Amino acid sequence: MVALPGIDPSWSMYVDVPSTSGADAPGTRHRWHYLDNGVGTDGSAVKGTLLCVHGNPTWSYLWRTYLAAGLAEGWRVIAVDQLDMGYSARTGVFRRLAHRIADLEDFVGAVGLSGPLVTVGHDWGGVISLGYAHRNRQGLAGVVLTNTAIHQDPTRRIPAPLRLALAPGVHDVGTRATTAFLDVTLALARPALERDVRKAFRAPYRRVADRQGIANFVSDIPADPSHPSYTALTGTAEGIRSIDVPVLMMWGPHDPIFSDPYLEDLAQRLPHADIHRFERASHLVQEDADTASTAMEWLEARSVGNTAPGLRPAVDDRTGGTATNAAADENALSGGAATGDATPYRPLGRRIHELATGPDGETTAVAEMKPTGPPRVLSWRELDDDVAAVAAGLASLGYGPGSRVSLLVPPGVDLTVLIYACLRIGAIIVVADAGLGTRGLSRAVRGSAPDVVIGIERALIAARAFDWPGRRISAAPLSAVRRRALRVDASLNDLRAARPADATPERSDADADADADADAAILFTSGSTGPAKGVVYTNRQLSAMRDAVESTLGLGPGSSLVAGFAPFALLGPALGATSVTPDMDVTAPRTLTAQALADAAAAISATVVFASPAALRNVLATSSDLSADGRTALGRIALMLSAGAPIPVPLLEAVQELVPAAALHTPYGMTESLLVADIDLDGIRRAAAAADTGLDGAGNGVCVGLPVHGARVALSPLGAFEGHSTSDCDRDGGPDGGLRGGSRDDSRDGEAVGPPTTTPGVTGEILVDAPHVKDRYFRLWKTQQDSAHTRPWHRTGDVGHFDADGRLWVEGRLGHVVTSPAGIVTPVGLEQALETLDAVRLAAVVGVGPAGTQAVVAVVETASAGRRPQLASAPLAAAARAIARQRGVEVSAVIEVAALPVDIRHNAKIDRARVAAWSARFLSGGRAGSL
Amino acid sequence: MTVLVTGASGMLGRAVAEHLLGQGEAVRCFQRRPSGVGAEDVLGSIEDDDAVEEAVRGCTAVIHLAAKVSFTGHAAEFDRINVQGTDRLLRAAERAGATDVVHVSSPSVAHGGTSLVGAPAGRADPDHARGHYARTKASAELLALDRCSASFRVAAVRPHIVWGPGDTQLVERVLDRARSKRLPLLDGGTALIDTTYVDNAASAIVACLRRMDQARGLSLVVTNGEPRPVAELLAGICRAGGVTPPEWSVPGAVARGAGAVIERAWLALGRSDEPPMTRFLAEQLSTAHWFDQRRTRAVLDWQPTISVDEGFERLGTYYRR
């Protein structure tokens, strides 16, 4: 083997192995090529062996990053070239699946393993490695799978590209006579492979004769039960169900062959598996993402392999989080864990049934405003009844505990009924916001692998167009033609009608039996930066969410609220509060008008409003059209919440004029924990006054108030940068010290590395611990690991600090922190200061250049800016610099733009990552394009 | 203990010599014309063995700034002055018993025409340097650092775009062209550029002499650490000089192409004055050039004292006088 990028030539080994395979005549020997990093072969300590098996048409080169990672982590890594593949022998015999499993056993017998075994497989190598793992349980310590499949659903056709590769006339030409199959596979890499890497993958397959193995592998795909390898495949597929060692599946969901349904199939066979989907990756996931480091981190977290006694990390069963760095600042954080054990668990839907069967059963539970005509209204008894009917209908279709039900229905009566029906049967609701856009929504739905999609017609059209998994149920009745066109099995009314005759309301209290710690919901993040993430809540955590809202805002039976902001709005029935959805396009909050809000409030005599800043902006913009009755209705509002994004104080003050009797609250939270802290307008004013009088820690950010009941908040301080310390050279005392070659380790700049603290004025990543924090991310093992590695805290990715009165101030996103040579600059405080300039409507503060020595750049939105971005005028630049200098920040450039990019959902969160990337181009000369 | 400063008739050389005098050092200046510093002057060329011998006699330290600085000219002349001159000076200094040399170099010795964003100093590379100046300064730096030993310590300091009152290289040219409306912005002048106010460059060079234990053998880029868009820098200079700042913009690619043509034409015509545009200048004005200053500041235990804005004010005072 010639020298190839990423491979140490000493890893390349050959071994002659006697064959016991039925494919060969007795006494046959084959020469195998493999890569071996040799860890432990000299008798040194080794954690175990990773046996890596490639698929078709790659070779052991695919695993080069694993060999390197294993070297660093003490794992022996052996990556084998299967017979007829890579640099192993061309046997001249058609080797089927069963032969290949036996071949692998022969190979392992010849080379020997060091310590416990972890099988690692990709593509058809996944099947073969599973076959080996299934038959060789002794010493098996773990299983790692990447884009593979173990079972072909007989009702679904095999993927089109494989059908094509198998087609008569195409197969031989495509796989053996030409390099087409090889080339197409290599072209799947995202981003494209480097030229020398592509060359390396092609190296062992240059001649036609080299490629017989590729052709045979394709022929050995058991497309149907008559295929000779079908039995071997089925045997393995069933056999692995009893594998009880830790399993990790790492997936590239853009794979046109081994797409999400195959992952789902494997997940059902190995339900204890940890799964991470690398959202942007494709079939060659090892090339597209850093799977090797993730695998190593997982082996450590799951304590796979030999570990020295006492060094074994503590592992949490659910998430695999290691208990490191959990030592909190004991003095500041005393007060115990936020377990919320004072509040006993009550299922989320319990109140509905209680109220339905109580004296208020005929009072309004939910209402939905219509563009014209009277609102749709259900009493508590009707709601309970409808929930029971739909729950029974879902059950009759076979859905129950653990089923994932994707709900693509706008907030309103139907969505409310569906949510509580799903929870009642133990199904998991999957909720993604249409604000994600069709592509983002499609990614989210596919990734959540729903058993059924229940949606409005627009969602069902998308489901059909993008071939979303799962059965389809229409929220509204559809004509037979539409049903067939959209492949819809049933409608919501069908579910109601399917209720068995003997079902009585008494039986509908089934949720009392639902497992409190079973998954209840997957809520998708807004995806304002990067792909949306699925956030999993258990029943207990959802209920804790309701309790937090109840105790923080004092809502309960007798309250009546306008639900203009989805996540909180859905809690209405759970709280026992009457709720109404206003007439608006919920995918675009800015469509809420003042009159629509007032009409909704009037319909149920509401005293509470939940809304988002974008909605409130439009309410204000349309308030001149408000009728006298509307003003009266709004005058009755006693509590208004603005959630989802920060809201500027002037906007809040304008809202106050519209709802003069209301306490205006702006709670702080995120999809992972909807309620973390809360503050009202008076509180904001007091906080601003505290900042003016120089209270320790007050200022520099948005004040979000005190942590809510049951939640603990702490900060993990950001790694401090030693700007111009000379201690290094003094200590080193000469040019051969750490300063030479610019080798200072600045990698920790701007990372949150410190132990949790609540000391006022200390900036750090905001950590939350509460009974209503998410359980985990869905199929994002690595992301979960990163967010939960400081037990028991959830790392929010937001940066902030406390003031001396215990108020939390948010300074921005961790990823948006600027690391200038003079120190760390968080964006929000400086942006607010810049926005006090008359010319500036909105400001973004970003960094350009390498971490630790970034230049601070202010990009400001002004009314006078032309279509093309430009450097700010000299007076504006000088004014901006003067403001920054007061805060100890040197601004390198001030750029004027007509509009800053903000998120779709809230129309408020600036996409600073995009602004930073664009600014870097703009300020390096040449064309930057438009922002 | 006497410090020899070569090239003290230039703006930076004079500032260095004055800074040393201000610290009570014995200073000797060596250049062709009288320096006007008020210290001992040895007049002569760095191409003259005898003059160099005389200059280094009795000196314990040398700060070497003398160089041919130009965007145009013939290769041989750059080689004689910048490479052979440096070699001659350092050999003579070592023979004469000097122990410390601060070789003043340029960031361009390590960088071609690409944009530099928070860049490290990098190793001098004559093979890829742009133009004769950068190439010969790169060779000179390498040979200077090559002579570094425990008893003869050499460090290279690379100030980036030095400017200040009395600057003929940048300030006067900018003002001249702006006055005659021949100063375009390239690509809108948005590229971030780090510059060095002359007092800061001088104090950094003197700081290096004090920190030879830490700095020997190293190349250190020195700047104000305040990258600014080139349009703002040009505007600041223009305002200080009482001239209307440029407003018209030319695509950088056009300027770079034109610069290359003009440069060749100037050589072919045998003109000795500076051409209105060269490829190097066009690259300097249209691509980002700013540097990571953390290591420099740590090694030298030094901070700039005059900010860019204060520099503009001083420049304005100078021109209003």
TrEMBL record, chain B:
Domain spans labelled NAD-dependent epimerase/dehydratase: 3-214
SUPFAM superfamilies per the UniProt record, alphabetical: NAD(P)-binding Rossmann-fold domains
Gene3D superfamilies in the record: NAD(P)-binding Rossmann-like Domain
UniProt-listed InterPro entries: Epimerase_deHydtase, Lipid_A_modif_metabolic_enz, NAD(P)-bd_dom_sf
PANTHER family attached to this UniProt entry: BIFUNCTIONAL POLYMYXIN RESISTANCE PROTEIN ARNA, SHORT CHAIN DEHYDROGENASE_REDUCTASE FAMILY 42E, MEMBER 2
Protein's recorded name: NAD-dependent epimerase/dehydratase family protein
Organism, as annotated: Arthrobacter cheniae
Taxonomic lineage of the native organism: Bacteria, Bacillati, Actinomycetota, Actinomycetes, Micrococcales
